[in-house]
Amino acid sequence: MTRIRSSIALVVSCVWALGLGGAAFAADMGLPVKAPPPPAPPPLDIHGYVEWDWESFLINPQGQALIDHSSATVVAGLDWTLYKNKGGFINRITTGGGIASDWSDNFPGYWGTFEPSANGDLFDVVMFISASVTFGQYWTLSDTFYNVYSGDVACNPGTNLHCDFRPNNPGFDTANVGFGFLNFNELKLTLNDSFTGWPITFNPYVTWYYEFQGDNGIQMPACFSCVVGSDFIIGMTPTINFKMWGAPWLTAKVPTYVTVGPSSFWNGTSQEPGATIGGKTQGGPAGSICCGVASSGSLGVFTTGLTLVAGLTWIPSNYGQWYAKAGFQWYDVINAALVQSNVISICNGGPCANWQTKDIIVGFAGIGVGF
Fold it and tell me: Looking at residue 269, what DSSP letter applies?
C-alpha cells in the first residue's frame, strides 16, 4: 500500500513539475517550446433597441404641429461601441443608426388634401446615422444625420407648400417643383452631472440644428415658415431615480428645452407659394397658403413635461431589458410665424383652436426593449 501511495505521489509530482515548470524543463533539455495562443479579440459590443409609442398629438421637436389626434411611432436602432477606456481622456467612441416611422389616419389640414393618403396610415419614415465621443468622464459630443421621407404632401398649383417630399400624390406639379428629401443634422454636446452626487441630475445640453438645402431649393423638417439655415436647442433633462424610496426600477424625467436662433430662421414671409427659391417657383399665387406672418423674434418653441420610465424587471433578462413609459409634454409655440405654420398644417389656413397651434399638450405612453 505504501509503495502504491508513493508511486501516486511521484506521478502527481511529475505532473505538477511538467505543468508548472514544463516550459523551463523543455528549455533546459533543448526541446521546442510551443508559443502561447494569441489573445482572443474582444467581443463585439453591439446593442440594440426597439420602442413603440402612442401619442395624443404628433409634433416635431421644432414645434411644427403635424397631426392633432392619436398617432403611433415605432423606432429601432443599433449602437456599436468601438472603444472604451474609463481611465483615459477619451472614454468611449460609439457609432450607430436606426429607423423610425409615424402612423395615423385621417390626416388633418394640409396633410389631408389628397386623402386617402399616398401610403395609407403611414405618415413618414425617418432614417438616421449617428456617432458619439465621451470624454473627460462626463462630456459627450454626438452627431446625428436624419433623412425624412413622406408621400403625403399636397403638391399641386394653388395649394402646394414646400413640395420637397417624393411626389407620390396625384396632381404633383412637376413643372414648378423639384424633388428632394428632408435632410437635417444635429450636433449635440451633453454634460452628465452625476459627479455631483445629488439625488437628481440635470444633464444639460446644447444642440446645433442645421437644415440642408435640397435640389428644389429648400427643405422643411423644422416648420413651413422656416428657411434653410440653423438654430440651437438649449435644454436639460432633470432625472431622478426612486431607489432611495425602494423603487429602483422607477425613474422620472423632466425633458425641457427652448429653440433659439436668428429671427430670420422663422421668416414666415419668404417661402410661401409663388416665391422663387433656388430658381424654382413654389406653385400657387403668392400669399395663398403660407405664411404671411413675419417672424416675431429669436425664440421658436419652449417645451417641458414629465416622463415616468418603469423597468419591467419581472421579464427575464435573457429576453432583453424591457421598460414601459408614460407622461405628457407641453409645447409653448412662441414665434408668431411658427404659430401660423401650425394653422396651415392643421387647419389648411382656416380657423384653428389655441390647443392645436400654440399651447399644445401631448400625452403619450410606450413600451420598449434594449438588448
Answer: T
pTM, to two decimals: 0.79
What is the per-residue pLDDT across 209-240, written as a single tens digit (0 to 9) for each? 998 765 444 445 578 777 767 899 999 999 99
Say if residue 137 is in the same domain as residue 212: yes
CB atoms within 10 A of CB 242: 15
Specify burial of residue 20 (Cβ count, 10 A radius: 0-12, 13-18, 19+).
exposed
CA distance 217 to 213: 6
pLDDT in tens, 305-354: 999 999 999 999 999 999 999 999 999 999 998 998 898 889 877 789 99
Whether residue 223 has a cis bond before it, omega within 30° of 0: no
Helix or strand or coil: residue 261? coil
Which grid coordinates are listed for 216? 428644389
Is the domain of 23 the same as that of 167? Answer: no
Residues 27 and 55 in one domain: no
Quick one: 139 and 193 in the same domain?
yes
Q: How many CB atoms lie under 10 A from the CB of residue 225?
A: 31
- C-alpha span between 359 and 350 (Å, rounded): 18
Higher pLDDT, 104 or 284: 104
Determine contact, residues 100/74, Cβ cutoff 8 Å: yes
Q: Are residues 185 and 257 in the same domain?
A: yes
Residues 6+ apart with CB under 8 A from 121: 103, 104, 105
3 state SS of 164: coil
Q: Which residue has the cell 434653410?
A: 228
Q: How distant is the alpha carbon of residue 123 from its chain centre?
A: 17
- Render 279-309 in DSSP notation, one character per residue: TEE-SS-TTSSS------SSEEEEEEEEEEE
Give the single-character DSSP code of 106: S
| Residues near 250 by beta carbon (within 8 Å), at least 6 away in sequence | 241, 242, 308, 309, 310, 311
Task: Show the domain range for 358.
Answer: 48-370
Distance, CA of 171 to CA of 174 (rounded, Å): 9
30, 78: one domain = no
> Nearest Cα to 330, choosing from 305, 301, 296, 293?
305
SS3 67: strand
